[in-house]
């Protein structure tokens, strides 16, 4: 039995919650994963997994083995990558997580640039708005809005992502100009959930003073491209992160309204598990993207 591969199959099965997910992640067949799991249980003479029609979960003994073996294999992988780094090579697969808007607009282009410089780097990029458990879901790093909590996570602040109020010239020509916050509140808006408070209020900031507006929503979306295209199509005015629309503002496809005001900004952080051995590929990617993210127009 290949104990290392059996442990990796076991770890991936627990992380993914299924044999299918583990097989896909390891790029081996499902029967091969099942065989590795069976051999591992025979080797330790214990049942490690509870199997049901919907999911696979670790037993108490399986959970203990999962936590220890994952940390041990991570240390081994880090040591091996350290040798590669010392030889001038950076290789391995990065598992990355980010909100869809910042991930597509900023993280993805930087990842491609990093991969061009290091052809031995592969990546698994997940873009989603949910809160992710980096350790349990085996992500190397994540971008997120707001400082993450937990003693097992290291967080580095990137900066403040600004939001401004915009509309299309066609919308303003048809519906009339917007000269005051009260006039804005009277118009149905298009927005992302992150731009609003939990009570669906729009926070406006002028000279350090905060004003909250009760607004009506014509469209709420979690996809940045949908927001931008809706604004450009004249569907309504709304708040938008400036880093999403630099070209549209420069070309006049969108124009700022209430330019003395900005909408609620978001604090952007990069976070990664606080393991003792940070893989060299992960460390190199962090060192690569942090200064570039800080230099993005719209992140202060």
Mean pLDDT across all residues, rounded? Answer: 86
Any idea what the radius of gyration is?
24 Å
- Total helix count? 10
Largest sheet: 9 strands, mixed
Q: Which structural category do the helix and sheet elements fall into?
A: alpha+beta
The geometry reads as: elongated
Helix share bin: 40-55%
Q: What is the CATH-assigned architecture of the largest domain?
A: 3-Layer(aba) Sandwich
Total count of domains:
2
Strand content: 25-35%
Q: How far apart, in Å, are the first and last alpha carbons?
A: 54 Å
Identify low-pLDDT runs: none
- CATH overall fold name of the largest domain: D-Maltodextrin-Binding Protein, domain 2
Q: Supply the CATH class of the largest domain.
A: Alpha Beta
Question: How would you describe this protein?
Answer:
- InterPro entries: LysR-type_TF_proteobact-type, LysR_HTH_N, LysR_subst-bd, WH-like_DNA-bd_sf, WH_DNA-bd_sf.
- Residues 1-59 form the HTH lysR-type domain.
- The chain is an alpha+beta fold and 300 residues long.
- It is built from ten helices and 13 strands.
- The chain is elongated and about 75 Å long.
- It has two domains: 3-84, Winged helix-like DNA-binding domain superfamily/Winged helix DNA-binding domain (Arc Repressor Mutant, subunit A), CATH 1.10.10.10; 91-300, D-Maltodextrin-Binding Protein, domain 2 (3-Layer(aba) Sandwich).
- Strands 3, 4, 5, 6, 8, 9, 11, 12 and 13 form a nine-stranded mixed sheet that branches. The chain has a two-stranded antiparallel ribbon with strand order 1-2.
- The protein has helices spanning 3-16, 19-26, 30-44, 60-86, 100-117, 169-175, 181-185, 224-232, 246-251, 280-294, and strands at 49-51, 56-58, 92-98, 121-127, 141-145, 153-167, 189-192, 201-206, 209-214, 217-221, 238-241, 255-256, 262-273.
- The protein is 41% helix and 26% strand.
- Helix 5 (100-117) packs across helix 10.
């Amino acid at each position: 039995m290949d104990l290392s591969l059996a442990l990796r199959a076991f770890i991936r099965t627990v992380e993914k919650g299924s044999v299918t997910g583990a097989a896909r992640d390891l790029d081996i067949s499902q029967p091969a994963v099942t065989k590795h799991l069976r051999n591992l249980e025979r080797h330790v003479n214990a049942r490690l997994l509870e199997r049901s029609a919907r999911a696979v979960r670790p037993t108490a003994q399986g959970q203990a083995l999962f936590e220890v073996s994952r940390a041990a294999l991570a240390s081994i992988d880090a040591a091996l990558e350290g040798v590669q780094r010392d030889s001038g090579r950076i290789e391995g697969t990065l598992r990355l997580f980010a909100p869809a808007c910042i991930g597509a607009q900023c993280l993805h282009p930087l990842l491609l640039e990093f991969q061009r410089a290091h052809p031995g780097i592969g990546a698994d990029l997940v873009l989603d708005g949910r809160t992710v458990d980096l350790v349990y879901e085996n992500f190397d790093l994540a971008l997120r809005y707001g400082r993450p909590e937990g003693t097992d996570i290291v967080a580095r602040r990137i900066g403040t992502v600004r939001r401004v109020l915009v509309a299309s010239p066609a919308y303003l020509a048809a519906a009339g100009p917007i000269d005051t916050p009260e006039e804005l509140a009277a118009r149905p808006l298009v927005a992302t959930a992150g731009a609003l408070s939990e009570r669906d209020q729009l926070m406006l900031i002028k000279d350090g003073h905060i004003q909250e507006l009760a607004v009506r929503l014509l469209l709420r979306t979690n996809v940045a491209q949908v927001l931008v295209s809706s604004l450009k199509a004249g569907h309504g005015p709304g708040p938008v992160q400036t880093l999403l629309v630099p070209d549209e503002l420069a070309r006049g496809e969108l124009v700022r309204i209430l330019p003395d005001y900005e909408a609620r900004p978001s604090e952007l952080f990069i976070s990664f598990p606080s393991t003792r051995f940070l893989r060299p590929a992960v460390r190199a990617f962090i060192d690569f993207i942090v200064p570039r993210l800080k230099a993005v127009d719209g992140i202060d």
